[in-house]
Request: fold
Amino acid sequence: MKRSLFLLLILTFLLAACGKEIETNMDEEVENFEFITQDNQTLSLEDLKGSWWVADFIFTNCTTVCLPMTSNMAELQRKMKEEDINASLVSFTVDPDIDTPEVLKAYASSYGADFSNWTFLTGYAPETIKGFSVNSFRSIVEPPPEDSNQVTHGTSFYLIDPEGKIIKRYSGVDSQSIEEIIDDLKIVN
Reply:
């Protein structure tokens, strides 16, 4: 009897560990999109369906939050390779008038981006990315103040599931979020 109870306890523990799920804090659908990549190709929501991806919003002449955000995304990409995690990274520019595909490619290259799973997107009007960010990601995008060239935007990373649903938001400026994202991606990979 004691042995059966012990085995049942072990089995329960193992099943509970296998059933680990991501603790979500969002439940938003990503609006359909088709934008231009750093390689002058198109990437759409449909292209990303079927796989997990992490998104953020940045711009190349940002002098504040984009620096740690892009560094953190580069570190996330490095750790995903180390852990053999299959997911995509997508960075949307919030300054598409300046951030042409060529500008984005140079910017991404300066951070050591591997374009095999990290894509930088542009090719839309500023109003389009503002609406896309607000409607899908519940994140602000505002044009620069009159005396500045710095676009106001959110600083989060977002985890999107294979159906195109945003399930979790993380701090994009806090490097400790990288481990949390890796842990969550391990659950689904």
